[in-house]
Amino acid sequence: MNKRKGLFLTFEGPEASGKSSQILLLKKYLKKNKISFITTREPGGTKIAESLRNLILKVKSDISIEEEILMLMAARSHHINNIIIPALNQNKLVISDRFADSTFVYQGYVNKYGIQNAKKLHKNILNNFLPQKTFLFRLSTKLIISRLKKRKLKNKYDKLNKKFHDQVNQGYKIIYNKKRFINIDASKPINQIHKKIISHINSFI
Ligand code: TMP
Q: Which secondary-structure segment (H or E) carries 22?
């Protein structure tokens, strides 16, 4: 765990696992309880990083995996330096919808850049900056696809391809570590998940 003020939490998991809806519920809870926080997301979080997000996640793009991962690192560096660290220094709770683990899984594992290679880049470029805790949403490929069918395609990774989602799930299994990750069964009712998340958060702050 990094020595720093504040608390940095991330939400990770496959497509349609309900992370963003849970972050919305959590925001309401934190506001009501006067807990000082910010929510953010990746790729993105700053103006520049959001512009990179649009380039990275375009449905039709011909960038190579190396170019994609370097753009993600640039976006993440800008996000860490301009949003995350300043908020942590003000002792805020920082909640990010995705972060470096997504790179380890999507670029490192699924797109075959290599998990260890992605981790090495993260170490060298971003000083291995990681969250203290990560809620890892778990959902079967069958449920991912049935949920995605009800949605409009948002980005190039929202595809209805069983193999792709199986690989994303497998990637998260590989990078899982007991110390930092908290498993969330994303097939459970929304309110039940919300209660589990706030009980964990209350135990950290
Ligand atoms: P989401 O915000 O709807 O979860 O979509 C973001 C997409 O970006 C998702 O498909 C995963 C992908 N992604 C990567 O491939 N690498 C990354 O490092 C991050 C943060 C996201």
A: helix 19-32
Query: 7 and 205 in contact (C-beta within 8 Å)?
Result: yes
Buried b (16+ CB within 10 A) or exposed e, 106-135: bbbbbbebebeebbebbeeebeebbbbbbb
* Mutation test residue for ligand 1: of 66, 121, 155, 164, the one with most atoms within 8 Å of CB: 155
Q: How far apart are CA 185 and CA 116, in angstroms?
A: 27
Model pTM score: 0.96
- For the stretch 104-121, pLDDT in tens is 999 999 999 999 999 999
Question: Which CATH number describes the domain made up of 11-204?
Answer: 3.40.50.300
Cα dihedral 134, 61, 109, 84, rounded to 10, equals: -20
For the chain, which residues make up each domain, given as ranges?
A: 11-204
Half-sphere exposure of 140 (CA within 13 A, CB side): 5
Name residues contacting ligand 1 (CB within 6 A).
15, 41-43, 57, 72, 97-98, 102-103, 106-107, 155, 157
pLDDT digits (tens, 9 = 90+) for 120-132: 999 999 999 999 9
Task: Tell me the Cα Rg of the chain.
Answer: 16
Predicted confidence band of residue 2 (pLDDT cuts 50, 70, 90): very low
pLDDT digits (tens, 9 = 90+) for 22-51: 999 999 999 999 999 999 999 999 999 999
